[in-house]
Amino acid sequence: MPDTDCVRTADTRPLRHAGVLGALLLSACGSGNLAEAAHHRLTVEDAAGLVAEHSTVPADTQVVRVLAELWVDYSLLATHLGADTTLGSLDVGLIVEQPLQEIMLDRLRDAVIDVDTVVSNEELAERFAADLPGARATASQILLILPPSATIRQRDSVLTVARSLRDQLAEGADFAEMAVRYSGDPGSGSRGGSMGTFGRGEMLAPIDSAVFGLQPGELSDPVETQLGYHLLRLDALAVPELSEVGAEFRARIQQERLTRAEGAYIAQLDSAAGLQFAPDALQLARALIETAPSRLSRGASERPLMTWSDGGVYTTGEFLELARISPDGFAQGILAASDTELRALVRRLAQQELLLAEAREGGFDATAVQVDSVSAEARTAIRERAEVIGLIPRPGTDGAESATPTVQELVRGALIRIISGQQEILPLGGVTFLLRETDAWRIHESRIGTTLDRVEEIELR
User: Fold this and answer.
1) How far apart are CA 407 and CA 40, in angstroms?
2) How far apart are the C-alpha atoms of 292 and 290, rounded to whole Å?
3) Alpha-carbon Rg of the chain, whole angstroms?
4) How many other C-beta atoms lie within 10 A of the C-beta of residue 401?
5) In degrees rounded to 5, what are phi and psi of residue 265?
């Protein structure tokens, strides 16, 4: 039976486009859902009303799609919370897999890597003098810029000028005047070459190495970076006392030793296993990120990115699952990575699978107590995120009895706060993948345009 309220609403509002009436009658009634999730539905009419009445940005396809995506995720989560506020029935296996793997790898590391962690006072003092941990330099520069595709002749020409300027500075020329006149860096150049004060690792590696290798007042030889040639002067150096940073620095040395030992162990496993890239590994990895398929066929998910002895394989399916549960920056990083960087990442992922196999073979799986603890922490984190979003009813402040809001009332309130600019979108990260894998949901892409048409009609009333 048709919903007479929605028929009447659609029938009595002015229409600008011929043929829209029929579409509205279909979209606003029984078959007119923009999305469904956990037995709830977001109708085209409801979605259009939310956007038209509350959105602070002009309606477009992206606004409607984001609204639908958030509605699905929030509806699924709020439904679980409505059934059990502790989320005890929610299978969090997908999002606790990584922390449980880290526990396995920690247990393996403790068993197979033996590192001497004793750092003598003499070694500590020597390393302190060489590394200057916690030091902050105040420096100045003159930058002679190189064109992005500089020829050898151009490089030689710029280097000759840099050496000439260095000779003039050594003979007493005013550094600030020379910087204003010659430096191609608009920031420091306009300030007489001043780079301000910075710590180790905050500048490009060649600059960092040169500056912290100088004595106060000393000039460097021309230092080449991708920007050009730099003439550097150390103006002042502030170094903490060893007694102030000794404990932290000793721990850093110990961690360096552990990292080297881990690297040697992994390299040994890699070599023994014979890790090999599939011929199209990088193209497959990039394609998965660019297309972001919701799921892969069995055959596609088993395509190898890397293989090794004894039938070991790191697959496209494993890579896609990692991408789904990773923060948003993971995908952007893959797309921006060079081939060298992407090869290194895929190799590290395959090496981790090797390590996990070693851990399982050695009996280093997480204990039942650890699994329960990590799962409880995950559920608590999800509940805290839901509370911030507003998917958990809050008790009244006046002590009066009030009806508990429904799932869709909570979801609607959260969406209004977001599209009206009162609250920023709070991503659910891997929880989105978890919810969508375990519950029924759907977004009707073909009705996004219909929703936009209805938004326009509402705004013109």
Assistant:
1) 9
2) 6
3) 31
4) 5
5) -65, -45
- Look at strands 33-37 and 40-43 and give their pairing: antiparallel
- Interstrand relation of 194-199 and 441-443 (parallel, antiparallel or unpaired): unpaired
pTM of the predicted model as reported, rounded to 2 decimal places = 0.67
Packing angle, helices 44-54 and 407-419, rounded to 10: 40
CA-wise closest residue to 33 among 441, 459, 420: 441
Which residue type occupies 168?
Answer: Q
DSSP annotation string for 121-146: HHHHHHHHHHH-TT-EEEEEEEEEEP
What is the C-alpha separation between 195 and 51, in angstroms, rounded?
Answer: 48
Report the C-alpha gap between 277 and 316 in whole angstroms.
12
pLDDT digits (tens, 9 = 90+) for 219-243: 999 999 999 999 999 999 999 998 8
- Alpha carbon distance 8, 22 (integer Å): 13
* pLDDT tens digits along 292-339: 777 788 888 899 999 999 889 999 999 988 888 787 788 888 988 999
Note every long-range contact of 110-114, with CB atoms under 8 Å and residues 24 or more positions apart, other chains counting.
Answer: 111/362, 111/364, 112/265, 112/358, 112/362, 113/258, 113/261, 113/262, 113/265, 114/261
Distance between CA atoms of residues 159 and 166, nearest Å: 10
What is d(CA 40, CA 77) in angstroms, rounded to the nearest whole number?
A: 12
